[in-house]
Amino acid sequence: MQYDLQNRKVLVTGGARGIGRLLALGAAHRGARVAIWDIDAAAAERVSREIHRTGAAAEAFGVDVADRTAVKAAAQSTGEIDVLINNAGVVTGKKLLEAQEDEIERTFQVNVHSLYWVTRAFLGGMVERGHGTVVTVASAAGLVGVARQTDYSASKFAAFGFAESLRAELAKDSTGVNSLVVCPSYTSTGMFDGVRTRFPLLLPILRPETVAKRALDCIERGESQLVMPRLARTIPVARAMPVRIFDRTMNFFGVNTSMDGFRGRATRPADRAEQPDGLTKELK
Ligand SMILES: NC(=O)c1ccc[n+]([C@@H]2O[C@H](COP(=O)([O-])OP(=O)(O)OC[C@H]3O[C@@H](n4cnc5c(N)ncnc54)[C@H](O)[C@@H]3O)[C@@H](O)[C@H]2O)c1
After folding, report:
1. Closest atom, ligand 1, to C-alpha of 17
2. What is the number of the ligand 1 atom nearest to the C-alpha of 40?
3. Pick the residue with more confidence: 39 or 274?
4. Is the full-model pTM beyond 0.85?
């Protein structure tokens, strides 16, 4: 079912940078009023100003999506939402024995628990009005486990399961509300700086502009799942193989060496805040 973003109100969590910022800019460019939630209130405000400069409407809120009380308060201030994009996420990129306990907990609080707090704050209104979309930004790491991602990959498997169960629940009750799960592989936002791909043609490091545009297209087309790149769509099929062969196949494609050079965002504190010319056009 077509769900044009024109005149919709769209909330993007983690909308201050990376894919979230581009989702916010792109949604605004397609005629939506945008609310940006981010733990970095100043950066969220900068994106809001970027959107204002294009003549569209936007509001920024400093919110930690892992904090249930903060989410409830921010939801009150934000008001009704037509499209909720659960995008905020974090990664540690450490081996199981090297990660701190609080880092592991934080991964689940931000990448998983927040899905419940934020979605519960807005879903009732969508169901009452008989329309809306809940987008869960999971990951290709929600389809396959990856060395140095025991916390991150597990959190994204959970996000995938959340979105799929929600889709079933919403359809069963004929609510008119859609659940879309977005599973990109590595994307050049800074979050996964240092990762590498063995076959760049088959498994390229994605551009965040491409991911954001495809996700916005999927919302507008009422689709339920976006897995990028195309080769990643074969992962569930590959699971029909014996585990030993599956593991060898993933090793062959370099999945388990991809994180060897991981540095993450720590190496890139100053993000691209400015909007390159023609960016919003690309997101349309
Ligand atoms: N970059 C990738 O390679 C990649 C690949 C697949 C999936 N993803 C997923 O896409 C989403 C966006 O990733 P990105 O690469 O744009 O990341 P990013 O680090 O560029 O941006 C994430 C944003 O989320 C915000 N954030 C973090 N914790 C928060 C919290 N507790 N409350 C509110 N905001 C918070 C950050 O301040 C930041 O603005 C994440 O869920 C990520 O897991 C990323």
Report:
1. 39
2. 37
3. 39
4. yes
